């Protein structure tokens, strides 16, 4: 069988185009012309002897072969980038301070810490998982160099102006996974016929709490706070126990919970995500961590689909 040696630049174009949902945007992101991107994709399909993309409407989607290739391409690029970063940063030492919103603490933080430790064993991360307001207060006080947090347009934090949004995600009504399913328990016991909707919420102040209450008030739906918690873990546990519904995005949603498609519940707004920087020019350790966080975000399907500008 003829061996194929993939061109990593071609694979990077392929992965970037799929992640952005547009190969024209991929051309802009990678600093290439659209004709050069087309030539790269043609080269890739000629190497494989089969198409990796097909037209769907006005855009392109992966074929079954393309979907298989995508996972391997991500792994090859990740290893390539990790090797390049490790070589360039072999002499880096010291520490960097990272803050992360609770929604990302379990999944993205684990990925970031593992990759950073492998590439930069002499660098130390001081990580803080906290609520949005706490993270932004620490950024304003200069106690964090980076913070992955939700955008709050009502807060004019100094760091906000120099950090573009990475993604915009819809807020969703969240309930226990078995709730509302055929033969399952009521999700909680709420008929929508004049009974207050039981809510499980983070303690105020909380952007998603405010968005939920505002949406319900505008729709004329009565509500009551059935459970309130200062931590996201407490909210997840109470929702899984059937105490009520909550509002979050689908990022980091535990398996015991699901997003509701419940007639009668009002629509919710979208929320932005930013990787806040404590300074316009980051030091080398913080810049390395910044890049690894962006890569970890791009590898999350829910965030990649909602991407605005990652990179």
Automatic annotation (TrEMBL):
Stored InterPro entries: LTTR (IPR050176), LysR_HTH_N (IPR000847), LysR_subst-bd (IPR005119)
Domain HTH lysR-type: 6-63
Residue ranges of the TM segments: none
Pfam families linked to this entry: HTH_1, LysR_substrate
Gene Ontology MF term list: DNA binding; DNA-binding transcription factor activity
Keywords annotated in UniProt: DNA-binding, Transcription, Transcription regulation
Domain of life of the organism encoding this protein: Bacteria
Stated name of the protein: DNA-binding transcriptional LysR family regulator
């Amino acid at each position: 069988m003829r061996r194929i040696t993939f061109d990593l630049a071609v694979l990077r174009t392929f992965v970037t185009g799929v992640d952005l949902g547009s190969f024209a945007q991929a051309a802009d992101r990678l600093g290439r012309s659209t004709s050069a991107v087309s030539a790269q994709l043609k080269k890739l399909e000629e190497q494989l002897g089969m198409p990796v993309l097909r037209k769907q409407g006005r855009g392109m989607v992966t074929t079954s072969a393309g979907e298989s290739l995508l996972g391997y391409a991500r792994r090859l690029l990740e290893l390539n980038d990790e090797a390049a970063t490790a070589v360039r940063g072999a002499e880096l030492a010291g520490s960097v301070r990272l803050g992360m919103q609770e929604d990302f603490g379990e999944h993205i933080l684990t990925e970031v810490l593992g990759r950073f430790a492998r590439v930069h064993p002499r660098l130390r991360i001081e990580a803080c998982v906290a609520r949005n307001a706490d993270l932004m207060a620490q950024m304003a006080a200069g106690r964090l160099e980076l913070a992955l947090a939700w955008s709050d347009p009502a807060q004019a934090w100094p760091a906000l102006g120099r950090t573009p949004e990475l993604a915009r995600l819809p807020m969703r009504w969240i309930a226990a996974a078995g709730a509302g399913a055929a033969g399952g328990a009521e999700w909680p016991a709420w008929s929508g016929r004049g009974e207050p909707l039981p809510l499980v919420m983070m303690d105020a102040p909380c952007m998603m709490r405010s968005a939920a209450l505002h949406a319900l008030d505008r729709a004329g739906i009565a509500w009551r706070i059935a459970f309130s918690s200062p931590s996201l873990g407490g909210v997840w546990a109470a929702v899984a126990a059937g105490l009520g519904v909550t509002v979050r995005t689908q990022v980091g949603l535990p398996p015991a919970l699901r997003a509701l498609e419940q007639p009668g519940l009002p629509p919710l707004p979208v929320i932005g995500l930013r990787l806040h920087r404590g300074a316009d020019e980051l030091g080398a350790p913080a810049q390395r961590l910044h890049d690894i966080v962006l890569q970890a975000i791009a590898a999350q399907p829910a965030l990649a689909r909602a991407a605005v500008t990652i990179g």
